[in-house]
Amino acid sequence: MVRYKQIVHTWMFGNTPFEQIVHLLACAGADGLDLSFALDGPYSWKNLLASAPKYTRLIRDAGMTVPAATPLYFKPEIELCSEDASVRSRGTEFTKGCAEAAAAYGSHNLLVVPSWVSVHHRLTAPHAEHMKYAAESISKVALYAKTLDVDLLIEPVNRYRVALVHTIREALDLINLVDMDNVHIAADIFHMQMEERAGIVNGLYQANTQLKCLHIGDNTRCCPGSGAMDWYAILAAMKAINFSGPLSYEPAELYFSETRVEQEPEYVARFVSGLKDGFIYLNNIMDRL
Q1: What radius of gyration do the chain's Cα atoms show?
Q2: CB-CB neighbours of 44 under 10 Å
Q3: Stretch 7-20: mean pLDDT, rounded?
Q4: How many angstroms separate the CA atoms of 82 and 134, rounded?
Q5: Is 65:106 a contact under the CB 8 Å cutoff?
Q6: 123 or 72: which leads in pLDDT
Q7: Residue 195: DSSP 8-state
Q8: How many angstroms separate the CA atoms of 21 and 15, rounded?
């Protein structure tokens, strides 16, 4: 039997008050939070860092932790692989700030996406040049994060959302370019089904011990057990490579709306119920491994 912590990305709750997010996740049976850091707004890394003493008590009192944290690279002005040195600098400083905030919540894992997340993304130079720019930016962040005991986890994302690093192989190539022992991988099952030519399970074996966090979403990005993914095979592969977790839920299925989660009681009730069903489903599989 294995038992990985099951946590949830907080961006999915929009601007819901933090106290309510913690309450809802506790009611769903989550083991913790994947704390999302925006560049600005109520859940910017600066605001969350300032609120860390109060919010960490809330999380602890609810019996949860923050095993992972996620900067939201939703704006082109913080792209880590940009040709523009000033853009890379802003992205580097943003990610350093997120590392500091992650450490304040006791998290040792910080996700990194080298290029900004958007349907409008594009490369403006040869691929190898952008990989070099990304490696330079991530190296600077990794040096700072190491002083905070924080690891950086590069996430491969599908071709329709980012311009750089779509596969486990590309993430490993970038890790080799950075060449620091606190840079690893966060994989996403939904993205892997689109980009891993040899399949999800083989991709997990390829990541091997570099895999430190697994993002969870079924084939339509719904919660586990409500789609067509072979979760037994996925979790068996995780056990075989000695994965220690966490499993981070990001079930942004078709027509999902964080604004509706924030504003509509019936919608958030269905969302939380889906999370609960997913936790139970994967726990039942883990009990059989």
Answers
A1: 18
A2: 18
A3: 98
A4: 8
A5: yes
A6: 72
A7: H
A8: 9
Return left, alpha or beta for 187; rule: phi > 0 is left, psi -120 to 50 is alpha, else beta: beta
Residue in the structure block whose two tokens are 């040792």: 108
Query: What global pTM score does this model have?
Result: 0.97
State the Cα–Cα distance between residues 153 and 223, nearest whole angstrom. 23
CA 86 to chain centre: 25
CA 12, 15, 18, 19 dihedral sign is negative
Give the span between the Cα atoms of 248 and 217, in whole angstroms: 9
Residue 41, class by beta-carbon neighbours within 10 Å (0-12 exposed, 13-18 middle, 19+ buried)?
exposed
Other CB atoms within a 10 A radius of the CB of residue 288 amount to 10
Give CA 269 to chain center in angstroms: 23
Alpha-carbon gap, residue 48 to 54, rounded angstroms: 10
- Region 72-98: what's the mean pLDDT? 97
Percent of the chain with pLDDT over 90: 98
pLDDT given for residue 119 in this prediction: 86
Helix, coil or strand: residue 66: strand
Amino acid in position 200? I
The answer to whether the beta carbons of residues 113 and 65 sit under 8 Å apart is: no
Reported as half-sphere exposure (CB side, CA atoms, 13 A), residue 135 has a value of 17
Residues in the chain: 289
DSSP codes of every residue in 81-123 = T-SSHHHHHHHHHHHHHHHHHHHHTT--EEEE-SS--STT---
User: In 3D, which of 32, 36, 11 has the Cα closest to residue 258?
Assistant: 11
The residues that bridge with 107 in the sheet, in sequence order, are none
Percent of the chain with pLDDT over 70: 100
